Each structure stands twice: as C-alpha cells, then as structure tokens.
Amino acid sequence: MTNERKEVIDMTVTENELKELRESNANLIAERENLQKKISELEKSLKSEKENYNWCFKVYQREKDKVLSLALIIKAMKCEKSISTIIENICSMV
C-alpha cells in the first residue's frame, strides 16, 4: 500500500471517528438537558412536599396544644363527674 493511500485511509478513519464523537457529544448534551429538567422538577416537587409537611406539622401542633389544654382543665377540675358533665363545664368556661 502506498503512503498516499495509507494517508487517505487514516484521514477517513479520523473523519469517521470525529463524526461519531460529534454525535456522541450531541447525545450527551441532550441527555444532560433532560436530566437538568428532571432535577428542576424534582426540586420543585421537594419544595412543595416540604411546604405541605410544614403546614401539616403546624396544624398537628395546634391540635396537640388544644388537647393538652383540655387535659389540664379536666385535671384542674378534680372531680369524678361524667365526661358529658366535664364537657359541659368546659364549654361554659369558654
């Protein structure tokens, strides 16, 4: 094989490799963009979940405080009355 022929073959291989690398690079760029979109969506979803969790926790804490307050009122009454009587007394206090 002549040197010229060998150089032409080497250039063809190089051009093919370059074409494959460009295609691979384009695919990687597209994949990165898709992953960035997914990450952005997941971050928004996580933020929403955190906000929901915080709201639920605040509601839970308020209700827990109400129950504790009622329990303290009932203990302060120090009586052996029925539940309905205790509830009536609590309602009259409020």
Number of helices: 2
- Residue runs with pLDDT of under 50 for 5 or more positions: none
Mean pLDDT: 83
Give the fraction of residues assigned to helices.
over 70%
What characterizes the major β-sheet?
none
> Which class of secondary structure composition applies to the elements?
mainly alpha
Seen as an oligomer or otherwise, the chain set is single chain
Taking the alpha carbons of the first and last residues, their distance comes to 105 Å
Task: Report strand %.
Answer: under 5%
Overall, the morphology is rod-shaped
Rg estimate, integer Å? 37 Å
Count of domain modules: 1
Summarize the helix and strand pattern as letters. HH
How many β-strand runs? 0
